[in-house]
Amino acid sequence: MVLDTSKYDLKIMKRIDNRADDPVCRVKYVRIRECNLYNKRHEVTVINGTVIINRVIRADSGNYRLTLDRSDGSETSRDLQVIVEAPIGSVEVSIICSSSGGMRVFCSSEGDQLLYSWTLNGDPLMDGNSSIDLDEGTDGNISCSVKNHVSHAQKTIRLKPCPADGSVGSVRSFSHLHETHVRKETGRSESEDEKIERRTCTHSRRFMRAAADHHIYEK
């Protein structure tokens, strides 16, 4: 941000090939004079030396260079990296009970560049993957936290003893399979929530294939 932009000729360049014809936006006397960087997108404005993009897209990611040309001929430049990521969706936690007695906890969510962390009864667990193995008899509340550069979310469930009689416990999320097929047969387009349901179903199918050798339950 520049406090008094009237004294400068600003140039914002997206560094693609590091050539003179890389996309650039020039601002002079607080007005955009030339800009092939944002292809006349109406949601892009420059206010007091700050470039504001009200609706970013993935293509806005990249390396940029901001150059300030002063009236005395001097120049100052600054390089910066812009990362655009999809925010995290709802977090789902599921558990598979092994026939050997242990359990594996799975965490899933939508979004980009996801980082996972786990806690058991508030104590951090030494595992940063989307799944974690627990010993038989592990009890308490397990939490999966998911974050990226733009958002974070968390889901906590209560661990249940694995069924001892070989039966499968509650699998309420599998009903999404039927609901999604019904929506497609109607020909109605999917909303964002319905797309998330469809992706959750794909995750659930993997659990169903494992059900022949494991006991499964979900919260």
Write the layout of secondary structure elements.
Layout: E1 8-14, E2 24-28, E3 31-35, E4 44-47, E5 50-53, E6 62-70, E7 75-82, E8 92-97, E9 103-108, E10 115-120, E11 123-125, E12 131-134, E13 141-147, E14 152-158, H1 175-186, H2 192-210, E15 215-218
Antiparallel strand pairs: 1-2, 1-6, 2-3, 4-5, 6-7, 8-9, 8-15, 9-12, 10-11, 10-13, 13-14
Tell me what you see in this structure.
It is found in: Membrane. Keywords: Glycoprotein, Membrane, Signal. With 219 residues, the chain is mainly beta. The protein has two domains: 5-82, Sandwich (Immunoglobulin-like), CATH 2.60.40.10; 92-218, Immunoglobulins (Immunoglobulin-like, Sandwich). It is 14% helix and 39% strand. It has two helices and 15 strands. It has helices at 175-186, 192-210; strands spanning 8-14, 24-28, 31-35, 44-47, 50-53, 62-70, 75-82, 92-97, 103-108, 115-120, 123-125, 131-134, 141-147, 152-158, 215-218. The longest helix is centred in the last third of the chain and has 19 residues, at 192-210.
Nutshell version of this structure?
The protein is mainly β and 219 residues long.
Radius of gyration: 25 Å
Shape: rod-shaped
Task: List how many beta strands DSSP finds.
Answer: 15
Largest sheet, strands/sense/barrel? 5 strands, antiparallel
The CATH topology of the largest domain corresponds to Immunoglobulin-like
Q: Which regions have little confidence, pLDDT < 50, spanning 5+ residues? A: 166-190, 194-219
The amount of helix comes to: 10-25%
SSE succession:
EEEEEEEEEEEEEEHHE
The total number of structural domains is: 2
CATH architecture of the largest domain: Sandwich
Query: Ends: how far apart?
Result: 47 Å
The CATH superfamily of the largest domain is: Immunoglobulins
Sheet with the most strands: spatial strand order? 3-2-1-6-7
Total of helices: 2
Mean model confidence by pLDDT: 71
- The helix-and-strand class reads mainly beta
Q: Indicate the proportion of strand residues.
A: 35-45%
Q: Write down the CATH class of the largest domain.
A: Mainly Beta
